[in-house]
Amino acid sequence: MTRALPACYAPTMTEISLWTGRLRLGDCYAVWTGSVGDAVAHRHFAAQAVFSSEPVAAIDARDQHVEGRCLLIEPNAPHRLLPAADAELWFVEPTAGFGPPPAMVERLTAAAPLLVSEEGGSAFWRDWLARSPRTPLDARVSQALAAIDRLIPTGSVRLADAAREAGLSLGRFRHLFAEEVGMPFQRHVLWRRMRVAFEALGRRATATEAAHAAGFSDSAHFARTIKAMFGVRATDLLFEA
């Protein structure tokens, strides 16, 4: 759970060293809205887009200063995002096979994005922005997705169980799932776990309760997943466990 900023609140530079705001999760992306706190140089699995009405800055792998109102950070690219009073950060699943949601397309169309990458790194943003949005899902996959959500609190979500729910062989289901959902089975399950956990936090559950509700082994497992995916410490986003 995070702390929301009052509409009229204007943070001081000292207060900007803290992360205050809200993290919302979709099926393959998360959006942080609020202030950006101090961050050490790091990398994370998710691709990241940073939007701000005022220029925001990052230090890239070559120790170069990149500053603008829209920064696109490649997956696993080393960087340090400097503190900002007000920004919107999108974290995107890099295995997503379909294009961006309309809300992001709209933001990017109105921006002049600057790329933060490393030599020889991925070209996720170029490729992803050229893809078409996701189309309606096959009914068998939709049925399997409902089964996944039922299984998540138990901790065990197996590909074989979802394939059985869809009435397909394991091999056929694995292929159809990735084609329809746009990412591998286990990556989808992880995003769903994160979403369930943050919904529990929104209901004032502790981090431990939220972790168990989403099938994580404990709050430490939940915290490690947050750090690996988003590069942000769980303590910056959550109430105490």
Q: Mean pLDDT, nearest integer? A: 86
Helix count equals 9
Distance from N terminus to C terminus (CA atoms, Å) equals: 10 Å
Largest sheet: 7 strands, mixed
The level of helicity is 25-40%
Describe the structure.
With 241 residues, the protein is α+β, with helices and mostly antiparallel strands. It has 9 helices and 7 strands; from the N terminus they run E-E-E-E-E-E-H-E-H-H-H-H-H-H-H-H. The protein has helices at 102-109, 124-129, 139-151, 159-166, 170-181, 185-202, 207-213, 219-230, 234-237; strands at residues 21-25, 29-36, 47-59, 65-73, 80-81, 84-92, 114-116. Strands 1, 2, 3, 4, 5, 6 and 7 form a 7-stranded mixed sheet that branches. A hairpin with a 5-residue loop joins strand 3 and strand 4 (65-73). The longest helix is centred in the C-terminal third of the chain and has 18 residues, at 185-202. It is globular. The termini are close together. The model is unreliable at 1-16 (pLDDT under 50).
Notable characteristics:
alpha+beta; 7 strands; disordered N terminus
List the topology elements.
Blueprint: E1 21-25, E2 29-36, E3 47-59, E4 65-73, E5 80-81, E6 84-92, H1 102-109, E7 114-116, H2 124-129, H3 139-151, H4 159-166, H5 170-181, H6 185-202, H7 207-213, H8 219-230, H9 234-237
Parallel strand pairs: 4-7
Antiparallel strand pairs: 1-2, 2-6, 3-4, 3-5, 3-6
